[in-house]
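queue> pop job 88
queue> type: inverse folding (structure -> sequence)
queue> payload:
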């Protein structure tokens, strides 16, 4: 018999299992912020799907953290997705851990080249499925 907890897990895992673009479509308004890195042309946001975007200048996540994410991640939900350099994602991932979130989807878009990190598409979500977006 499927319990409430199992049903919640299935509801969260199904869009992610279908692939990242499908997860974004399924999350729809659930993704509160798209983060893109100005160092990459391919990091532009799918504006038709998401209401709000943030741009990282030179891969610096400090303004994003102090201006948006720190307060937003103290509450419930607030899914964040984006396409950034792997260096910026590393910092965001460490900050996410401190607020009960994890990188739940990660896809390499472009490999690293000399002078520029790899480009990675990702999704950060609350760890526990009972914490809704």
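queue> result:
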């Amino acid at each position: 018999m499927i319990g409430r907890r199992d049903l919640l897990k299935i509801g969260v895992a199904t869009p992610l299992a279908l692939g990242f673009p499908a997860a974004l479509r399924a999350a729809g308004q659930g993704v509160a912020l798209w983060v893109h890195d100005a160092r990459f042309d391919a990091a532009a946001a799918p504006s038709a799907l998401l209401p709000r975007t943030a741009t990282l200048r030179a891969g610096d996540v400090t303004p994003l953290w102090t201006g948006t994410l720190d307060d937003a991640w103290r509450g419930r939900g607030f899914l964040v997705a984006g396409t950034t350099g792997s260096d910026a994602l590393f910092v965001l991932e460490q900050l996410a851990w401190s607020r009960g979130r994890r990188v739940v989807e990660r896809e390499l878009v472009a490999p690293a080249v000399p002078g520029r990190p790899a480009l990675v598409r990702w999704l950060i979500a609350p760890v526990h499925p009972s914490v809704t977006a």
